[in-house]
Every structure is written in C-alpha cells, then in structure tokens.
Amino acid sequence: MPGTTTSLEAFLHLLNGQIGSGILSMPAAFGLSNKIGWWISNCVNLHPYNRVNEYICDELELPVQDYEQVAELTVAHGPPTLRSWAKTARFITSLFIVASQLGACAVYYLFIAENLKAGMPLYRTMANPKAFARPIVGVVDLVNIIIISLNFLLGLLGYLKYGDDVGASVTLSLPNEPIFQSVQLMYAFAVLMTYPIT
C-alpha cells in the first residue's frame, strides 16, 4: 500500500533480501580472486612493465623500480619536451593504481544500486520515497555499504584464517568438533527455513 513503509522498514526489507548464504563463499572467492587477479595483471600489466623496467634500469644502472618510479624515470629520460612532466607522470600512475583497486567495488556497487532503483515495489510503498535512493545516506546506499562491508570482512577474515585450503563455504572449513558441527547444522537449518521466505 503506497505511503505506509518507513525508511527503517524499507532498509530492513532490502537488507534481508540481499544478505544470504552466498556470504559464506566469500573466503573462497578471495582465494580465487587472488589467483585470477594475479594471472590477469601478469598478462596485461607486468609484461610491458617488466620490459620498460629492465630497459630503463639497464640504461640508468639502477635496481628494479616500482610502477611510479618507472613512469617518472621514463618521462624524465624521454623526449625533451615531456621531461618537465616526470613528477606528474609519477602522480598519475599512483592515481591510476588507486583507481583500479577501487574500480571493482564501485562497479559492483553501482550495478546493484541501479538495478534496485529500477523494477522495485518497495520504493512505491515508502512514506518518504526520496529517502530510498538518496546518495550515501539513502536506504539503497546504506544497505549496499553494509552488504559489501560484510562480504569483504568475512571473505578477508575467512581467507586469512584458512588460506587456500578454505572450503567453498567457510562452514566446511570449521574443525570437526561437536560445537562447530552444531553451528553447521543450525546454519543449514536456518537457510533451509528462511530461503523460501526471502
């Protein structure tokens, strides 16, 4: 019914709808992303970087440099008209490295937010619909911040604890002791009972 759902109720509905048992797979995802990310960066970034790094270090008789230093040295010893841009090249390279690390999170965040704002009946039932998609403090953004944070935190902690041996679900990596077996059973029961509701 239009105009009856409070912002808190909408927040709790969205949170309930988005959080699920997939969060238990985040430690395994961390392990896989580490391997996949290494392979992609090796193919796309490291080969050209290594060639430039070897060349500039051989020419200047320097030890191996990092990305920012290679960018600065390359421009500083490149065409004379560009040499004054050496420090700028170093800064831009640092900026791109940070942007690439944040990019994956931002794309995921925008994808979820835009899709929620599009075929969502909860929006139409809110007493204050403007609070639904308000930037940062709106219902959608707060839910996404919490979901992304929980996924990241559980993935990181689970991967740090179990490493590459982590199971597809972190509950499968728990020790084979009665207390942990009871946790596995309770979680399985909770998922079984609540999945049809969401």
TrEMBL record:
UniProt keyword annotation of Transmembrane helix present: yes
Membrane topology: Multi-pass membrane protein
Keywords in alphabetical order: Membrane, Transmembrane, Transmembrane helix
Domain Amino acid transporter transmembrane: residue ranges: 121-197
GO molecular function, one term: L-amino acid transmembrane transporter activity
Spans through the membrane: 91-111, 132-159
Localization annotation: Membrane
Pfam families in the record: Aa_trans (PF01490)
Keyword Lyase on entry: no
One cellular component (GO) term of this entry: vacuolar membrane
Protein name: Amino acid transporter transmembrane domain-containing protein
Organism: Oppiella nova
